[in-house]
Fold:
Amino acid sequence: MTQFPDLTSFSLEAVLTILGMAAVTYGMRLGGLLMADRLPQHGRWAHVLERLPGAVLISVWVPSALSAGAIGIAGAAATVITMALARNLFAAMAVGMVLVGVGRYFIGN
Amino acid sequence: MSRPGPAQVGHFDPDTIRRGALACLPLLPSTIIFGAVLGVLAAQRGLSLGELLFMSLTVFAGSAQFVSVDLWRETVPSATIIIATAVINMRYILIGASLRPVFRGRPLWVKITGMHMVADENWAVTMTQKDLANPGFLLGGGIFLGVVWATGNTVGYLLGGGIPDPEVYALDFAFTAVFAALTIGMWKGMVDLSPWIAAAIGSVIGHYTLPGTWSILAGAGAGVLVAALTWREDMDDDSLEAEFAVEGRDAYGAQEGAAVTETAMETGK
Structure:
């Protein structure tokens, strides 16, 4: 903490590593879209593709709610219910986060 | 009869970009704090601030960046870091695929420029927009999150510590909350029920049996599999309107003719 932070040095290996990370990430983003463009617009594949965003989204948050423990599950449930009733993203997030914050403060994890 | 196609809203219309940015506003506090935590970690691992910001704006993927910066050493283990990034970000293949309706009918250059600033958060917000899902909306959210993320990185890097613990204010839970809430907006009817249950079960099993973010792929894979198995010919009628309409017009997979006109009339066009 005594030395001034290193702001602008760019080492070659760092830049190349970061470019490699960026290339694989961007390649998968664009590649997924271009692959989907080649899938049929009707029938089974189109149906599967329509279910995909919900399936991905659920797979992102369900495990993280579980690993946040009982309070995480309660917070996620409160968020989902608030969203279903109020259809307001701010409100739904606020209810879930306040519940989790207060729960952790009083109960711990 | 050709598609009833009033001119599409521009590819990257400034007003749409602004709305996309505003839609990601609820994510500001948690994004800035996690950005700052990454900044602190990067300073400890010996990245320069310039290198960190370069990474944040070219890779633009939070969880992969956390793992990569954590793996960072004086001699950078490049291959390990790039492979870890590829594994963690594999979900972007699915996310990219699911963006097909947002980019429907757009030229290739729009896809090439629009697909970079795609994080889980602005993707989810965009996918749940009823009528204004548009590459500009997606990009607006991406730019907003990128600026906030990089600002957080800079603050954390310069402070070198003293960042509030995200857990205390439940800011770590913000990401769970936003994705949970947005799931509601993705509900298109009973056809979603069994794939969603499969995704939940698959991701939970994956969470306990697989390392890292493989649980996302396990859950999505289970959901896709069940969706493919439960598909029937007569579902196609449903899916015409179930798929959200881009700008309230071109229903996903809609054939030219009556169905399109009906959908278009319902949305008031």
